[in-house]
Amino acid sequence: MSAKNTQPVVLAKVPLSTPWQTLDPFLFCMHHNDQYPAGNEKMGPAASLEGRQIGQDFSNKDGWSMYHGEEVPGFPRHPHRGFETITIARNGFIDHADSLGATARFGQGDVQWMTAGNGVVHSETFPLVNRDKPNPTELFQVWLNLPRANKKEDAYFTMFWHEQIPNKTVTDAAGKRSEISVVAGVLDELTPLTPPPSSWAARDDSDVAVWTLKMEAGAEWSVPPAHPESTRIIYFFEGDACTVGGESIPARHAVQVRADAACVIQNGDTPGEFLILQGRPIGEPVVKQGPFVMNTPGEIRQTMLDYHHTGFGGWPWDQDSPVHPADEGRFAIHADGRRETPTS
Known about the structure:
metal ion binding; iron; six-stranded antiparallel β-sheet; 1 helix; RmlC-like_jellyroll; RmlC_Cupin_sf; metal-binding; mainly beta
């Protein structure tokens, strides 16, 4: 009979930095939460941009940033290779365009899962569609690594419309509620939507989970055990305090916990929100250079040469950060011309 694992449930806890700390198989996690004002006729802020370093504005001045956008906030065209982006658009909208000719508008709880694979160029803009009221915009962008065998796959994206994403509300013994949304990873009776086929998350043994959790004040919920080889981080990003695995956690902390043990989260005196990332490590060398993630320095050099010579397919749009009309609904047009909407 094997010895019982006496390792504590909480392995580490650190204040949230920018970007958030991650572990293999994840590479990067960024939380954007911008309180944008009303929009103008170009769907940019109807406010002065004076005092901002336009093109490189991460100031959070007045509660929002333009990022690399000049008229509309966001990230004009830029390349990726060798990993995936999981973009959870919690509030506001994101307009996507890419070098394959695909485009989309998504938001209000939708998720875009994009496999960069062998290379893609895309833009992500945050159109401020409301001209008579503020445009709060909140999203997570999570980078999930690709195994060496899948880094040369063709690029494309999958849409998870919020109406289709599995979720449930659970009530604890005291009648306090917790809401869980499942982007990836089976949770009890909830089976997630299918990730892209070349994703590490598409493998049955990857144990990848991406869950968001919203808890009432004083609510309690137990994260179920997972594979013993997996890594698991609980990001406590909204609320005053909580306990995780019996340990007190201050506001805005990342908590690494054992994945193979049930882990009780007890929320504090105000509503709390959490992001949970979990997965078995890929366990391969990681070499990163900006938006490129490969296994060796030589592959990074080759990627730079490829991008210089091919542009990963070029750019079929007449501007670096295309936006759709303000009254356009949520939709996606894929590289093969297929149009998709939340009701299709």
